[in-house]
Amino acid sequence: MEEKRNLRKVVDRERSKQCPWTQVLRCCTQCLSSCSQAYQRSRNSISELLNTTSLWQKMLKVIRGKFGTSVLSYFNFLKWLLKFNIFSFIVNFFFLVIPQLTVAEKNTLLFTGLEFFTGVGHFRDLVMYYGFYTNSSI
User: Fold this and answer.
1) Which positions, given as ranges, span the membrane (predicted)?
2) Residues near 72 by beta carbon (within 8 Å), at least 6 away in sequence
3) Alpha carbons 28 and 18: distance in angstroms, whole number
């Protein structure tokens, strides 16, 4: 044990005799390594957070465990279709519906309930139905 202490003292003396630039370089490398470690930790924590907040993550794990990856790929496709439909709705709403609502006239037709089946009457003049749109530019 005593030999180890003596050897450690000798090594520490040799290090102290070295040029001061090497100590500065060591400080910079330590700083860079600590920064890179902090970046990796934060990236890993963000990745874990995104995985836990992913849509139906727990249920998809259960499906993969019970039925295998081929069934899981089908449900992943359904999840992708849902995300695509939401994106498509947002684009259509902001680029079609909102501009038409700014120009639309007030709909004065009465709603009777039969319009759900026929698509005429009150629904004919609503923005979400094709009959409302005109050929003119807004």
Assistant:
1) 80-101
2) 60, 63, 64
3) 16
